[in-house]
Amino acid sequence: MAQGEVTSAAREAVSPRLGRSNRDIMTLGIASAAVILFVGNGGSVLPQIVRGLVGDGTGPDRLLTNALLLNIALVIFGWRRYRDLSAEIVDRRRAEALALELAEHDALTGCLNRRSIGAAASALATAAHARGDLAAFIMLDLDRFKQVNDVNGHAAGDCMLGEAASRIRESLPPQALLARLGGDEFAVILPFVAARSEEVERLAEKLIAKVALPVHFGEFELETTISAGISKTEPGQSPDIQAQLHMADIAMYHAKRNGRNRYAWFEPNMENEQRFRSEIAAGIRRGIPLGEFVPYYEKQIDLENGTIAGFEMLARWNSPKLGMVNPEIFIPVAEEIGVIAELSECLIKQALRDARNWDPKLTLSVNISPVQLRDPWFAQKLLKILLEANFPPSRLEIEVTESCLHENVGLVRSLITSLKNQGITVSLDDFGTGYSSLSQLRILPFDRIKIDRSFVMSLLEDKDSATIIQSIISLGEGLGLPITAEGIESEAVLTELRRFGKFKGQGYLYGFPEPADRTEATLAQLDLLLEPPAAPVAVGKQRAAR
Ligand code: C2E
Ligand code: MG
Ligand code: MG
Each residue of 92-114: pLDDT tens digit? Predict the structure, then answer.
């Protein structure tokens, strides 16, 4: 229900009160006067009437009799009005209570709402401080709730919100407050003994575990998780509710960025982190139309003969303020603020233009964010870009990270299948860092596995890395999937890797990722360009970026 509706309902129930109560006083006045007159008048007239009726006397005065009849009518009118009024008051009280309930509570979940939580939380925190306790503010937000709404519809979303609210409510101690602040955001406020903050943590863990249980919606089983941020009041300071909620909110975003389905306590440095992210976000929005995002290219080598098999495009942000920024900084922010698809499209278009002049046997790999894979039109959009660039799909390789396997596997599967049907190859990037199971690998029709660079880089020092690489290679052989090893930094690692078998490799041993013109210059030297570079690039003039 919209806020405006609640307010007008409340107003409607309350504002006519003044006019009506004036009328009520008049009715009461008339009825009282009628009763007094009846007592005064009736005392003398009634005996006269009785005497007249039994034939003992002259009968009552006509005028007085009429006055008495009028009196009786007024008493009856007063009585009936009193009865109606009583019923009206009951109805009115009920309407007022309902209006108040609507104004203070969220209609879907029955929780307190954003407007009413302030006063209740303030009273709770003040009482806690008076006892020498503190108050904890837990901000809760469902993870990827938008996806539930988009994929399963709003009725499913409402069902999930209702279920989440009742599971949270059931888990709370009696003195705790629960509010729905809007959308999929809830707040829990509770007092706790200052020395026992671990009890707040246990509660947060309990809430996270309960919300993660499946929700039944018709024949479907919906699943979600929740992220929590916690702030606590300071002893000896009067609690500022808005500031506490803000801190809990910052901590909640921190928990989301660290993988969701977890909680985090607020720490002051999180605020700087948030500020930095906001700056990055504003910079990304400004930078996309200004062409500040550019593709760099890293060689992919066929380890059997040492030749270049293709390039992986790696995004760089040439920020006027921050210099050359690596994707690990800006990609997560671009995902968060919903511009990753736009950013990726503009980079892919540039890369396709660059790669058109390369030898046609060279492939181009591009990284795709899990966020883009949630778009059911992704394959069609990519095909359109390929057609416009006149670039053969067979030369394009898409790299998706293991984290996409935690998403809707059915959707990812159909997407990968339609990419493959168009002739595009699909690799599973950073393999070994996530939790993909063998069964998932079998369901999802990947063409290649890329071993995460962390294992390759530590191959010589860490026995476990060697074991992991060995098992990934056996897995690849078992599933018939070719392997690429990333992060080859030295000849020694290369020699060691070669002992495991044949595969492709990439890493700083073959050079850092380079911009388009430097890549062209390298390919020109190797006679791997269709047409000579537009302008020769002086060696050392362009800085390579890691
Ligand atoms: P990735 O796809 O695994 O890319 C390989 C990363 O390892 C690159 O980092 C590359 O510079 C680095 N690397 C390559 N060889 C070596 C080596 O020998 N030693 C070391 N220490 N590092 C090496 P970069 O460019 O910072 O990219 C990081 C990640 O950002 C990429 O990991 C990829 O997941 C993501 N990314 C890059 N460009 C894009 C993009 O356009 N879209 C999306 N969604 N993600 C991107
Ligand atoms: Mg990659
Ligand atoms: Mg990788």
Answer: 888 888 777 778 999 999 999 99
* Ligand 3 geometric centre to CA of 348 (Å): 18
Grouping H, G, I as helix, E, B as strand and the rest as coil, residue 461 is coil
What separation in Å is there between the alpha carbon of 260 and the centre of ligand 3? 22
Q: What is the CA radius of gyration of the chain?
A: 38
For the segment 418-434, the average pLDDT, to the nearest whole number, is 92
Output the CA–CA distances (angstroms, integers) from residue 51 to 61, 65, 70, 250, in the order listed.
12, 13, 21, 91
CB atoms within 10 A of CB 104: 18
Q: Which atom of ligand 1 is nearest to the CA of 401?
A: 34
User: Tokens for 453?
Assistant: 């660079």
pLDDT digits (tens, 9 = 90+) for 241-295: 999 999 999 999 999 988 899 999 999 999 998 899 999 999 999 999 999 999 9
- Ligand 3 centre to CA of 328 (Å) is 12
CATH of the domain spanning 112-266: 3.30.70.270
Give pLDDT tens digits for 111-163: 999 999 999 999 999 999 999 999 999 999 999 898 888 888 999 999 999 99
- Judged by average pLDDT, the poorest of 140-144, 272-276, 381-385, 431-435 is 431-435
Can you tell me the distance from the alpha carbon of 489 to that of 457, in angstroms, rounded to the nearest whole number? 7
Tabulate helix, strand, coil % of the chain (nearest 5).
55, 20, 25
- Cα-to-centroid distance, 292 and ligand 2 (Å): 21
Kindly state the tokens that stand for 437: 């199971």
Tell me the best of 300, 354, 367 to mutate to test the pocket of ligand 1, counting ligand atoms within 8 Å of each CB and taking the most: 367
Query: Is residue 327 in contact with ligand 1, taking CB distance under 6 Å?
Result: yes
Separation of alpha carbons 534 and 357, rounded Å? 11
Q: Which helix (H) or strand (E) holds 92?
A: helix 62-104
Identical fold, 112-266 and 282-525: no
For the segment 48-65, the average pLDDT, to the nearest whole number, is: 74
- In CATH, the number for domain 282-525 is 3.20.20.450
Which of the pair, 9 or 205, is modelled with greater confidence?
205
369 in contact with ligand 1, CB cutoff 6 A: yes
Q: Which residues are paired to 137 by β-bridges?
A: 189, 231
Q: From the CB of residue 136, how many other CB atoms can be counted at a distance below 10 Å?
A: 26
Q: Which of 336, 453, 488, 509 to mutate to test the pocket of ligand 1 (most atoms within 8 A of CB)?
A: 453
For CA atoms 452, 383, 285, 184, give the dihedral sign: negative
Question: By C-alpha distance, which of 296, 374, 312, 367 is closest to 338?
Answer: 374
Burial class from Cβ neighbours inside 10 Å (0-12, 13-18, 19+) for residue 328 reads exposed
Query: Is pTM, for the whole model, over 0.90?
Result: no
- Amino acid 484 reads T
Q: What are the boundaries of each domain within the chain? A: 14-104, 112-266, 282-525
Strands 226-232 vs 134-142: parallel, antiparallel or unpaired: antiparallel
The ligand 1 atom nearest the CA atom of 450: 3
